[in-house]
Amino acid sequence: MLILLPPSEGKAAPGRGRPLELGALSLPSLTPARERVLDALVALCRDQPDHAATVLGLSRTQLDLIQRNATLADAPTARADQIYDGVLYEALGLDSLSPTAKRRAASRLAITSSLFGLVRVGDRIPAYRLSGDATVPGLGPVAGLWRESLGPAVTDAMGKGLLVDLRSSMYAGFWRPPAELAPRVATVRVLHEVAGRRQVVSHFNKATKGRLVRDLLEDGRDPRTPGALADVLTDLGWKVEVAEETKKGTQLDVVVTEV
């Protein structure tokens, strides 16, 4: 089973650590694309800081992130699971997993990244700022570049197992599973039910997905189909509704009543 996660917009910047080594990251087929994005982002922030603020969507209180991007090649790195620190990752709580669940996280989780395409939780990366909808001078739309590169890396990583796609819509645009993979693709939507009415709530959605992934990692089962995944989640106490399979995969609705 391969679980695709979105990144967090905010990131924890390590105070020390060895500099970035692109060649040491997992999924080495992505190295050429990673080099292109890194070089373009560093050049933009180093040579055109005012324009970089616009491209990156930064406010006046965030201009320090331009300098951080300009020095990415030499910036200290830490494990990806220490860099990404948003709502989903707080709920997932990778640091407090059991030793066995941590080993599963290393092999089953992949984090979508505008800068690196995909990273594993143990990959050492610097803190950076680059949104999935950015268009970088000399590079073009970030999403477009990754659409050309991610497919083989993802299909390699998932092997013959199930793909559980938890990416947000922005990062889902980096790569969409082809129709032939649909029987082995599950997407998850979180619905908050109150007084019989259901709605999607962004913050709650992220936290719930984090807790759901934590449960799967601690449980350890390796479902091979969306229906089998729904059965596992139901066993773990989640309320799950399974939609009809489409050429994009099968959507699982996880219905929750408490924030």
From TrEMBL:
Cellular compartments per GO CC: cytosol
GO biological process: one example: response to hydroperoxide
A Pfam match: H2O2_YaaD
Transmembrane parts of this sequence: none
NCBIfam families listed in its UniProt record: PRK02101.2-3 (NF002545)
Name of the protein: Peroxide stress protein YaaA
Source organism: Nocardioides antri
Gene responsible for this protein: yaaA
